[in-house]
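Hi there,

I know you've been waiting on this one. I reran it after we fixed the sequence typo, so this is the corrected version. Both the input and the resulting structure follow.
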Amino acid sequence: MKPPPPFIDQALELARHAVGRSEPNPRVGCVIASADDQRVLGTGDTQAVGGAHAEIMALRDAAARRHVVAGATAYVTLEPCSHHGRTGPCCDALIAAGIKKVVASIADPNPLVSGQGFERMRAAGIEVVVGPGAAESRELNIGFFSRMIRKTPWVRMKIAASLDGKTALDNGASQWITSEAARTDGHAWRARASAILTGIGTILEDNPRLDVRSVATPRQPHLVVVDSRLQLPLNANLFTGNRTIYVYAAVPDDAKKTALEERGVTVIYLPGRQTGAPDKVDLTAMLRDLAQREVNEVHVEAGHKLNGSLLREELVDEFLVYLAPKLLGSGNGMASFGPLQQLSDAVPLEFLSAQPVGVDLRVMARVAGRDRF
């Protein structure tokens, strides 16, 4: 007897289609297959916020194909939701459709669900199997899991540097250290994030747009600026396009706050009183605030000073580093922190991958143990 088709693998591939679209909801895929001959009856993935979840899309797809799903098996990469949010409970929709078995990769970490979807389906007589594809689903939704469990987003720091670790020359010149291929790849990582984070230093020096342009995207990530003294120019390039902009400040300036709000910016004062730096933004509190604003993944593109501050406060989870095949000698490093007194104080990392992108090398690394939550 040959093994069943890899429906969970197919569902995971569908979930990947939701990257860059489903925020702040998790990226979920669903395949409904007949129990007898294991034909695919319907497929779906999570739509834009407020739209249908993967299970509903799969049921609609099956209906459009005129397939009967009563008695079928649903393969889904995350526990079907059991609460009324922007949409109704998916577990109830599967029950009403007559689904007899659900194979789910992993439980939903949302406290409003967290096993209740499984319980409701079992109570309705549905056989529930949990586990296939769990690691892949969790990794695909690591920002969602982080926000639900740690109450902070997953923080990924992107750095473009020379092989000797320089991100800019002594005079500040940094465009372009890496190739166009690396920059395009970087835009794909921007697109998957909930928000792009930068500092006022980068804005004043480079006046970047910090949006997604080089790849197609159904939505622009939010933009977050750490701007302690509200120095953000009202004519900065970042105002190009229609997206949510958050500016975190420490020193009150009501006139500038009003001017920024007239440009559609949300200004939040979070002075670091508890950290002993009331004239600086409390970065830990900022991440907690972003989580409350439903931000799952933060993509950092900042200078060495803000990078160093985030590292000193142990707020970085992962690194996305593009290394160019060139040496720059003196200049700005990747992050300004330290000096460390002993090697054991170094930030411990785990390499995830190293892959050529054009003439450059993309290195993915994660702070050791940071994903164990």
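Quick highlight: The radius of gyration is 23 Å.

Best,
R. S.
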